Amino acid sequence: MSTMPSRLAELIGKPVNDIDTPALVIDMDAMKRNLARMAEFAKKHNVRWRPHAKLHKSASLAKMQVRAGAVGVCVQKTSEAEIMAAGGVTDIYISNEVIAPAKLARVAALAQKLAAQGGHLAIAVDSTEGVIRLAQAMTEARSATGVATVIDVFVEIDVGQGRCGVEPGAAAVTLVLEIRKHPALRFAGLQAYHGKAQHMRSAHERRDAIAKAVEAVVLTRKLVEAQGITVDLVTGAGTGSLMLEAASGVYGELQAGSFMFMDADYAKNERDPAQPQFEHALFVKTQVVSTHGGHAVCDAGHKSHAIDSGLPLVHAFDTESELEFFNGGDEHGILRPAGDSKRLPGLGRMLWLIPGHCDPTVNLHDFMIGVTGGLRNGTVQRIFRVDARGALT
């Protein structure tokens, strides 16, 4: 784990202008408003809220989400779960398949550790082999410790993502029946996440996609319940579609995570009127280091922000300063005036970039700098460690 440099610790209480560049900065006022809106939305629709910690990879921010009303967090990796637990998060769902025996032994150990603390671990499966391997790991852990820990298991069905997940319907029932054969496993419900729907640009497309997902869930639940088995929970949803899953009457838990920071890609979506108004809260602070001809150059290249969902947007405080960001390589960004403007920022000018995709951008940084009072005249309030940076196993 990276030791916090003294220059970062000394920033607390200092103005935003003192932040060196490039740096990953959280507008904490906007972030807290996003958290409050999400908590209010979940309460209004009587659904649980379990955000993805893979967004921020910070145990401190995960616990802040729990204090705001989240029931716990989702993670995608075993190592993320271990790091969240080490940081004091006690209710964790690995919403992904784990197959390797060595990883499953870690899952079983973590399930026992959290249970001993009064906490809870859950995991997803999408194959009979996956169920059997998980059961074996849990049984071995129980034998070694003498503690009869039970892990919650969600059957993941493919509701349109085309990635992990068993076919909805009879194939899912087979997995449910397999889970119930093993004393160390408890069938907890269905995992039904439609990732592709999050980035469909029109509200109409997203509504259609989630309507089909709901049909798949309803079919699967009906067939499971025909076996005399209750489906206690359907979990899923993301920032782009959460209002649709919440309104379905089928989903009981929302896994949206990006809403807390938002990013440039989500800004491209047509907003559904039913969705809470989330704000951009994550920025890369950068500085102009060169100006030549019709462009300027800043010091934030691809090593500062992920580009899998496109290049960042330049945050504009007013229309006269609107700029476009172009690929400048690993260490640089090219800035050109937007539209009819011909104005360029001068040397030393501080600028704020909205990352194209928050999650992998966060994974490029060891620390995030929390600012209150705005990006122009705010003050550094807190430094957040990216605890699970590089936690890929």
Distinctive features:
about 400 residues, alpha/beta, Lyase, Ornithine Decarboxylase, Chain A, domain 1, TIM Barrel, 2 domains, nine-stranded mixed β-sheet, eight-stranded parallel β-sheet, 17 strands, about 20% strand, globular
What does this structure look like?
The structure is a single chain. The protein is of the alpha/beta class and 393 residues long. It folds into two domains: 6-23 and 278-385, Lyase, Ornithine Decarboxylase, Chain A, domain 1 (Beta Barrel); 29-260, TIM Barrel, CATH 3.20.20.10. The protein has eleven helices and 17 strands. The strands form two sheets. Strands 1, 10, 11, 12, 13, 14, 15, 16 and 17 form a nine-stranded mixed β-sheet that branches. The chain has an eight-stranded parallel β-sheet with strand order 2-9-8-7-6-5-4-3. α4 (78-86) packs parallel to α5 (101-116) and α5 (101-116) packs across α6 (128-145). The two termini are 16 Å apart.
